Amino acid sequence: MADAKTLIVPKGATGVLVFADGSAVFGRGFGAVGEAVGELCFNTAITGYQEIMTDPSYAGQVVTFTFPHIGNVGTNADDVEADTPFALGCVVRQDVTEPSNFRNVQPFDEWMRDHGRIGLSGVDTRALTRMIREKGAPNIVIAHDPDGAFDIAALAAKAAAWPGLEGMDLAIEVTGKDSRLWEGGPWTLGKGYSLNETQIPFVSSEVETPETGFSTALEANGDSSRPHVVAIDYGAKNNIFRNLVKAGARVTVLPATATFDQVSALGPDGVFLSNGPGDPAATGAYAVPVIRQVLDADIPVFGICLGHQLLGLAVGAKTIKMHQGHRGANHPVKRLEDGLVEITSMNHGFAVDAATLPANVRSTHISLFDGSNCGIALTDKNAFSVQYHPEASPGPQDSFYLFQRFVDGLKKAVAP
Ligand SMILES: NC(=O)CC[C@H](N)C(=O)O
Fold first, then answer.
1. Annotated region CPSase: where (predicted)?
2. Among 137, 191, 356, 360, which residue's Cβ finds the most Cβ atoms within 10 Å?
3. pTM of the shown model
């Protein structure tokens, strides 16, 4: 890493990461030409770069992949967790090569370019990861210019001026704007995504009416013998909804700003709180009052990641910004009820501070990497949440049981 004052852009460098202190890491740019400012984090997953790039929880962040070969299987229309990438860009060790996979539709670098995302290759990602581990996730600018005409001091000033993720509500920017009915279960080889027949007829993807809000959704949403989960979308990964369907639910998705009246008008058997980007405390300003009303109404609740942090805030706990966060597909988590270890998918930079949990909330899971809180359950209500990602995508599917546990609990609730 070189100092800004002595910095000369090396010959052939077409991409750069610039830090707020003026230091820089050069490489080769790919994908979109331009620059973006955000937080740099690292992800240790070996597979699933397209799911990672399209996870809305990465809004405001640039991902450096520790696995050296990224892009080598190209991209396709199925391996996406949202309609578009949300990570601002990525940093990789090897240059992106010609895709080699029967599922490839478009090379990764073209896909990045078409979606306005900046890539940087040829970087010593091990050194970068060690630096983040030691100093914490930094604010950076990533830039790509085929002529290598970088004004490092100006880019460093932009990185320094960026306020950082703490205090930033990004859920409001990435949430779906309309209510929608979710259809379809998980992907299988040769079949793609299953369309769950009991979820049909699919009447409309926009069921909001100006007078009644979302109240027409219930009739529209298929088989009423399946428990109805109303999912609040703070920046949800699609595979969460697919897993809820697989577990037997029918799912209506509402925007992050949905009011309690809009939620309850749908007659939910359960409410799901999704993952999402940014600082939970900032999103909590409007999300927490709604979640408290849901809890007061004794509607069962399940939350994942940001949804976990928001449930924590709703019961009176505090959230904290972590030093470097957890991002990868191999994170061991211990289930405290019986000591079972789940290997999990993770993506978070904030956490629930277990020391602030009130008496009626127990810690259910902890990280075996650093002992941080990874799950909570209320002792006096049917409400629980986990910090990690049981929907995988990418990652192991050890924790699918959580979807089943939630939906089975609702079936009991709706049984005659
Ligand atoms: N995946 C998520 O939901 C992330 C939650 C939150 N934005 C965090 O960084 O901790």
1. 1-227
2. 137
3. 0.92
